[in-house]
Amino acid sequence: MTFWTLDETHDPEARCWVEGADGHAEFPVQNLPLGLFSDCIGGPRAGVAIGDFVFDLAAALQAGLLPDLAPLADVAHEQLNELLAAGPEMRRAWRRALFALLTDAAAEARCAHFLVPMARAEMHVPCQIGDYTDFYAGIHHAMNIGRLFRPDAPLLPNYKHVPIGYHGRASSVRVSGAEVHRPSGQLAGPDGPRFAPCERLDYELELGIWVGAGNALGEPVSIADAHEHIAGYCLLNDWSARDIQAWEYQPLGPFLAKNFLTTVSPWIITPEALAPFRVAQCVRPEGDPAPLPYLLDGDDQAHGALALELQLFLSTSAMREAGMPEHRLSAGDARHLYWTPAQMLAHHASGGCNLQPGDLLGTGTISGPARGEEGSLMEISLGGKQPIALPGGETRTFLLSGDRVRMQARAVAPGRASVGFGDCVGTVA
């Protein structure tokens, strides 16, 4: 099987016995994303989102409800690293088995008590993250940011040749809902730097890529095999302190401006769930260099990009107090990434770096080519020069205390059940 193969689990006519699952905008039975949850009954364990419920996968395995998946029973607790390490064949097996169970009306009587309402479930970061790497693969974001500082040459010479990335801070990755504490750092000024709270707090709309099966130290992953090492996707907010970043990033890149918090949505959306939404990588403009051979694969170019509708919303504390709805700041599409997820992973491992199950990769900020498709406030406000008008008369250039940011991703295609990621939310404390 290939990473874009369709099977019975993608049937848009399939019906699920879980109330509200059929036609659910994010978690129909065709999705079945994996997460780590706890509730009043017990601690962190594997669950699968279905409609407005979490199916307690760990308990179902322990109860022998899925006998063919018995080997997974011992690795479905605490962290999901070993579950991701089991690889694509085992992942496809539990997806098919769970799909069959949830579409079998006769199974409802013996399975219904494994459903936990999402409102009663506390979600956790699904894996113990050994390493977190953030890429810079959103070319329109790179162009927008570059124009603010280098109007005549917004992209640096290496951008179209190599997937740019930096090693982030794994220990400060938190699940959706975690508070955002404004960081302090050195801010540049006419009289020299001063240590103070960040004044230009920003978000960055990204996809997260969860690594499944790893590779041994010194053994690169080929671009043809890279998809087999991707266990799933999430939304990722790479919170950024722009003023700290501006002073510190030369010559070695982001440090304190990025390491104070990264927020991820709680569900791991599997490659299998996204198979109907695979599209060809955007054709490079005439004159752009072709990827070097170690980054070029025909199947990846034909099917390696993802068609995902992305939206970003903001609500201020004043808006919420007045009962006003959140305001949409931007909307875009994940297919605007210049490099595919497989290219990012293959490049990461190309020097022999050993990726491990549960490692997290960020794609970089995803922006589109048009106004209204920006993935950060830095772009929308033109570096703080153009305030954004909000409902109720407020304005913003960067985030203030009480501001809440919500990111959303949906995969939608004609004749297919929509697949959602779940929200990625953070509120500035």
Overview features:
alpha+beta, single chain, 2 domains, 6-stranded mixed sheet, globular
Describe the structure.
The protein has two domains: 117 residues, SH3 type barrels, CATH 2.30.30.230; 297 residues, Fumarylacetoacetate hydrolase, domain 2 (Alpha-Beta Complex), CATH 3.90.850.10. 17% of the residues lie in helices and 24% in strands. The mean pLDDT is 96.
Task: Write a short abstract of this structure.
The protein is an alpha+beta fold and 429 residues long. It contains ten helices and 26 strands.
Q: Helix/strand-derived class?
A: alpha+beta
Give the overall pLDDT as a whole number.
96
CATH class of the largest domain: Alpha Beta
CATH architecture of the largest domain: Alpha-Beta Complex
- The CATH superfamily name of the largest domain is Fumarylacetoacetase-like, C-terminal domain
Q: Using DSSP, what is the number of strands?
A: 26
Radius of gyration: 21 Å
Tell me the number of structural domains.
Answer: 2
